[in-house]
Amino acid sequence: MSAILRKRKKRYAMAMDMRKCVGCNACVLACKAENDVPEGGFRCWVEIEIRGAFPDLKQRIVSSRCMHCADAPCVSNCPTGASFYSEGGAVQVDPDKCTGCKACIAACPYGARFVRPEGYVDKCTFCMHRVAKGKDPACVEVCPTESLVFGDLGDPESSLAKLLARRQHETLKPEQGTEPHLFFLS
Amino acid sequence: MNEIVRVHHNPLSALGQPVWHWEIPVYLFLGGLAAGVMIVSALLARRFADGGADASETSQRSPWGRLMILAAPAALWLGMFALLLDLDLKRHVLRFYTTFQLSSPMSWGAWILLAIYPATLLFGLSQTTESERDWLAAKLRIGALRRILEGLHSWAQQRQRTLTWANIALGVALGAYTGVLLGALGARALWSSSLLGPLFLVSGFSTGAALTMLLPLTHREHALLRNWDMIAIGVELALLALLFVGLVSGAQAGQRAAALFLGGRFTAIFWALVVVAGLVVPLALESIEVLRRRRAALVAPVLLLVGGLALRWILVVAGQSPLG
Questions:
Q1: Is the CB of residue B58 less than 8 Å from the CB of residue A68?
Q2: CATH at A168
């Protein structure tokens, strides 16, 4: 009982199973619809990488988005505090403070950000408006192969924490030292 | 062979399209120019203040050399206008001044810029003669201005030493921050170097000296600026060499960034415009001026200004271009 009552720190994160993803783009479309993402901008996208020479080819499909880094260069380079860490370490943009200076876009190693037609910068929010109601992010909910798993790493009993403990995983561009929190299961 | 197919990606950030366009290199150039003008003006004032006791020909100042500092706030104002044009949400521009973000060089810069206007204007005013102040007050046709100018002038003149050092310090801060700003963006391999701060600082110093040397200065003023400028060019060449050594000997992304200039797309324009025309030729011309005791020509300063703009333009464009 005491373990439950003890206050622990939330740390939201996501795992993406490269063995399960078929590149159907349902996550991309669900995100666009859920978050009213304007034309030309994407909070979530799919990358298909084909390596090797025919006929010896290997394909890797990745559903990607903001990595919600623990040491996010977009946050540290933002001159107005518009980019910030919200509850659970998710990286957010406050449109009210954003000047559209694009320092965060230049700073992001993952290309996760874009400028909305209104002039402020937009990106994946981990669907915090849904998470606050106990739901999964839109991309996770629609994934037909269940290759996306969202959860709280601060809770060792969460399905995400258990999945990451069990499966081999990697992050993108770890050499940038940003401590990304989108984990790719291989 | 590897093939990557990206389905729906933000075109701005990952496909090698630039985030920043002409506004940023123009601002970086004008900011560096303002920084250089501040530093050389303050150094000149210090040098002449030391030998001010004797009224010989060498202690004379030209009005242009004395008042050149006023070009700094003008250049900065133009540069800040370019920055404003770059903002995608211009009506939020005051958000820069409702906060201070310790980890953001851009936030530091925003506040440094603000401090430069009073520092340069007061320093400039302290350098004016009474007749120049009279002329200004008469020109603007504001009765009270005469008294305000006199009051500010005597206030500033009593604090000449402090103002001189404030202009040197703020000039160094402005010149260095324009480079640190890019250097803090680790995602762009070419920029990700702490050498960009000192590089942009010495380049700014050099362009500031060059702009001043375009004016009708006294012989001693010109000679001092030219000598300082020759040192600055030497340091700048050394820093450029170190920048490439750092990139080539570092991580793979840095090596690919260096390759843009060592055989890649930017090789010809960078070496021709920045290194040869912008640094080596002016250094040679200034050396000839010294050795042969030739009269000063305007070619070297003009080349230095072109080279300073080209340096920033090429680094900003190349830093955002896809690596080969």
A1: no
A2: 3.30.70.20
Q: Is A2 inside a domain boundary?
A: no
Per-residue pLDDT reduced to its tens digit, B77-109: 999 999 999 999 999 999 999 999 999 999 999
Convert the pLDDT of each residue in A28-82 to its tens digit.
999 999 999 998 889 999 988 888 888 888 888 999 999 999 999 999 999 999 9
Q: Percentage helix, strand, coil, to 5, in chain A? A: 25, 25, 50
Q: How many Cα neighbours within 13 Å face the side chain of A94?
A: 14
What residues in B contact A115, CB-CB < 8 Å?
12, 88
Report CB contact under 8 Å: A107, B186.
yes
> Domains of chain B, with CATH numbers?
14-320 (1.20.1630.10)
Q: Which uninterrupted H or E stretch holds B74?
A: helix B71-86
Choose from B9, B94, B98 for mutation: most chain A CBs within 10 A. Answer: B9
Residue A86's domain spans which residues?
A: 9-185
How many domains in chain A? 1
Q: Could you report the predicted ipTM of this complex, rounded to two decimals?
A: 0.89
The residue in chain B having the minimum alpha-carbon distance to the alpha carbon of residue A78 is B104
User: CB distance A47–B5 less than 8 Å?
Assistant: yes
Q: What residues of B are in contact with residue A101 (Cβ under 8 Å)?
A: 86-88, 106
